[in-house]
Amino acid sequence: MTPLERALRERIRTEGPLTGEAFMEACNSYYYATRDPLGAAGDFTTAPEISQMFGELVGAALADVWARAGRPANARYVELGPGRGTLASDALRVMRSAGLVPPVHFVETSETLRAAQKAAIPDATWHEHIEHLPGDGPLLVVANEFLDALPIRQHVGGIERRIVITAGQLAFDRDGEIVETSPARDGAVRAISERLVALGGMALVIDYGHERTAPGDTLQAVRRHGFTPVLVNPGEQDLTSHVDFQRVGEIAREAGAVFSGPAEQGPWLERLGIMARARMLANAAPERAAEIEGARARLCRPDQMGSLFKVLAISAPEWPTPAGL
Ligand code: SAH
Fold this sequence. Notes:
This is SAM-dependent methyltransferase. InterPro entries: NDUFAF7 (IPR003788), NDUFAF7_sf (IPR038375), SAM-dependent_MTases_sf (IPR029063). This protein is an alpha/beta fold and 325 residues long. It has a single domain, classed as 3-Layer(aba) Sandwich (Rossmann fold). It is built from eleven helices and 17 strands. Strands 2, 3, 4, 5, 11, 15, 16 and 17 form an eight-stranded mixed β-sheet that branches. Strand 2 (76-80), helix 5 (86-97) and strand 3 (104-107) form a beta-alpha-beta unit. Helix 4 (52-68) crosses helix 5 and helix 7 packs across helix 8. The chain is globular and about 60 Å long. S-adenosyl-L-homocysteine is lined by residues 28, 32, 38, 46, 48-49, 81-83, 87, 107-110, 113, 144-146, 149-150.
């Protein structure tokens, strides 16, 4: 039994059944605090860890919008849940070549990942919450696979599904058609949207999920690059759920921001020029041509990350609309 499972069982015994939200919150805080889960040796691999092309095209999209917004000198780069800082390094390199060298602000709760981020971007500033970001100057925000890690609630027939101990095991107390909501995710989208409306700027959000609100159980656990049962090994596997992009759009609009997308990741990367970028990299390093093409295919193909992953932008009303969406 994992140390966290022991603590959760004790909590259920003393406080009663746990909501999915409390369970996911506890598991993911522990999980991210105690490891770097990314890459081949970890549990899952994200787009920026597959290829530098991903972060470069994100950087190009942000630099383009910034240039068309009149090149505001006080713009900041903000990333939510920046992992190892790989996306930021690749994006900032491209932004620099476009004349954009913004101060960097990271929102990250894991000390382990903060250390990795510090090695990649030594002069970044770290924050615990979106609310602590600076309140002056436009923001260029990136969130890749951030919203999916925030806790969700699940309801069956209007009743919240909870976790109990049955026959000595953690188990859900009811099954049936599941409706998911995520106050934490809604809160993050609202906080970013309100800031963008007040300060100017744009957020690019990339994640997996569905374009329309629909019932369904999307809570999933991943360990060593494979799916595992969600209630097993609490704190030792990555718990995520699909993002409801319709809901994200509704919240952004309620806050007065402009919502663009969602677009599928593959076509979006193609519209931003991933083919040309892959050819350039392969010409510069012919011995890596097959690897570069493999990475491009993994990011873009509909049977890999190209279709399930979606890209959307939330913009301040007076800001130009982003390319590719
Ligand atoms: N964006 C990175 C990492 C994705 S993993 C990439 O694409 O590689 C999720 C990231 O979000 C991790 O950095 C994790 O520590 C962070 N995270 C998870 N929950 C968080 C929370 N509530 N607040 C801030 N960061 C969080």
